[in-house]
Amino acid sequence: MSARTEVGFELKGERSKLGPLLADLWRSRDLTRLLAKREFLVNYRRASFGVLWAIGLPLAQALIVGLTLSRVVRFETKGPYALFVFAGTLPWTFFNGALTVATNSIVIGSELATRVYFPRAVLPIVTVLSALRGFIPSVAVLIGLAAIFRVPLGLDLFLLIPATVLMVTLTAGFSLVLAALQVYFRDMKFIVAASTLPWFWASGAIFPLDKLGSMRHWLELNPVVGMIEFYRASLGTASAGWGRSVWICAAWAVGLIALSLPLYRRYDRVFVDLL
Amino acid sequence: MPSAVSLTDAGKRYVKYDDVPLLITRAWRFSTGQRRSQLWALRHVDMEIQPGESVGVIGRNGAGKSTMLRLLAGVTGPTEGIVRVRGRVAPLISVGVGFHRELTGRENVYVNGVILGLTTREIDGLFDSIVAFSEIEDFIDTPVKFYSSGMFVRLGFAVAVASDPEVLLVDEVLAVGDFAFQKKCFDRMEQIRSGGATIVVVSHNMAAVRSLCSRTIVLDGGVPVFEGATDEAISIFHEMLAKRGISAEELPAIKITDFTLQDEQGNPTAHFEVGDEMTFCVEAQFAEPSENPAVLLRIYTEDGQLVYGEVPVLSEPTPVDAGGMVRWIVRLPALLPTRSYSAEALVGTRLAVDAPMSGSRPILFYVSGRPFVLGAADLRATFEARAYPSTDIDQGAKPSGETSPRPVETPAPGVADGSENFGEAPSTLVPPDEQFDHS
Predict the structure, then answer these.
(1) Looking at the whole model, is its pTM more than 0.80?
(2) CATH number for region B248-368
(3) Which residue among B75, B80, B115 sits closest to A114, beta carbon to beta carbon?
(4) Domain ranges within chain B, ordered by starting residue
(5) Alpha helices in B99-177 (DSSP H)
(6) Chain A contacts in chain B segment 161-180 (CB below 8 A)
(7) Which of A21, B72, B256, B405 fits B360 for a cystine, CB–CB 3.0-4.6 Å?
(8) CB-based contact, B412 to chain A, within 8 Å
(9) Would you say residue A195 lies in a domain?
């Protein structure tokens, strides 16, 4: 066989070294890609409408919220309200869906993890990437919807790319940290489930930030606000001064990833002891 | 040449959890300052394995075997000491782990190969040989949930060995699958080993260890107590089991003074070929008189399954007075498959199922059985086979011409007599995906 990169390992103590850990993670990209593909296929292969569910879910949510709420209160939003809501529920559904599954990913992956070594960080990352596969086509629906509502689309549309990168990084950051905690505190997933609703209401997914006054600054500390505003910005429907919330979101994302490094360095090779 | 596997004073300590790990229970323990009990599953292990060597690891349950496997696979880090592995490790532990039931065989081969450390490109190159080895060409694009357990194992093994690992970790997996395939697996492992790979076999199956490993390590209580030739290791392991054997209760009234195992010539031995006559001698001293002293002989497999037990009803009772002694000679043929066994004798004062009895220390012995015999006993079946050319079957001749004079002229459909489906149309003989299930 062709020259294979020198593999093997030397373990001294239970902690991993950062260098080899990151190298292993980099070497696991084929594994990550295939596992993500597998998770996606398994999720949607058996469903009669398949991938349509991935698009349909945030769309249905947007429709329901858009139709009901617009009867009760009238938010003044840039662009049509339904589009405004969809641009919010779309990233939110991704974030929430991926996080819920990813939190339990290391525990669920125990059958594999107790027998074969691969960086455990692969497991939550796989969940996020698998969710991304379902997310991409719904972005096309978002753009289509904007076209239907005759929202003028410009170069801002390219902001969708950094917006998606930010969304994935933020979700991965939360997923990595919570999946590690879930191994030690099995009630993490319930805490995540319980915080879904308040988190959603505080995300600005269904109302504009402009009207909040000084409350807005507090709300913007919620990283999900920036994540959503970034998507709206690409359609030109974000509230004025959206940049601040995006920077806060980016700080969260970087902070969470930075936090996960020592976490996985310490626990990567001992997670199995608790599974 | 540097060792393929090396453990230097390696040890692994586990924390015992007897409650569900939740935030609240953790917080409670933390605030009340309760410490968890800790346990060394493995300690002070020094081991060097050279490339091309195959080493067995044996020991009782809880001796640290699975912890050893986990350390070698790298899934857990040592609490102390160093674990060093050169090259890629392929764990042959529960073959098929990572298979997803909804995915096809092909998809699973890729996922499993990548899990074992191959790249997709490498699997592209190996794919045909993997499928050929697993012998499931026709089903490779079928979701594996339709596979028989035998097919499942075959595909998993095929991926693991095709990956050409530098270090192969073998668990109890070889107990599954049909014999022809097991033979193929053994051959393939031997081939991998002679190609310079290292094999570590962790098993209860002494026969497997014996046939694969030249050197064996005996673990006891997390510590290696012996390292050397496999035969010696196995006998040391047996002595260990005998000493630590679950000694049955002892009645003050009855004392078993002798319990031995001999061959036909009366020489003490612990090794028999299949069919040899085994002779057990049981001697017991009675403190109280007994009208009808009874003996019970039980034979267990090494993992504790009862193979055979009998309380003989002797034609003549052997009454004994206080202080007297009874000696039983028990002869039986070793109609057993290859394995280690333990035998124990129990002696009571009367013949009854619920009578209290005094137990002996177990005797360990080993039987070299016939190849390809599985199960608890070797019943020495005779097999007859006859082939029917396809031309006969196409012409409607029913393949029911067994040598037995079973009436086959008018097979009533659906008669629940437990007979085979041979009377029915050939198209319904065997569902296609069960054809490969020999396990």
Answers:
(1) no
(2) 2.70.50.60
(3) B75
(4) 248-368, 382-439
(5) 105-115, 120-134, 149-162
(6) 164, 166
(7) B256
(8) no
(9) yes
